[in-house]
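Input chain follows. Return structure tokens only.
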Amino acid sequence: MASPTILLVLAPFAALAAASPVHPYDLIYNYGIRRFTGTGPLPRRGAPSRFGCGMGAVLLLVTAWAFSAGHAGVGYALGGVVTFAALLVGTTDICIPSLIYRSVFGWPRARDAQP
């Protein structure tokens, strides 16, 4: 859709998820959907997941800039990366930025993990 506006609306959600151990969309599940499904709450997110959300926020902002600056090819390429990463984590639970985090910083220690 090449819409910088939509990308700029999504970026704060990713930034919030990077700054908080609870993703804003997890709150929708924890305080709404799970009441109807009878399931438990989603766990807090650790540093690898927050790192991934931070990378997503940056990619969304850079992609929005590319489209607004008239660099449609760059925008579509970055948008494809963002879309692929989101589809991969949404369908297989494989988060490429989390894998990058773990390869650089190692696995978070048990005492650092959120309950």
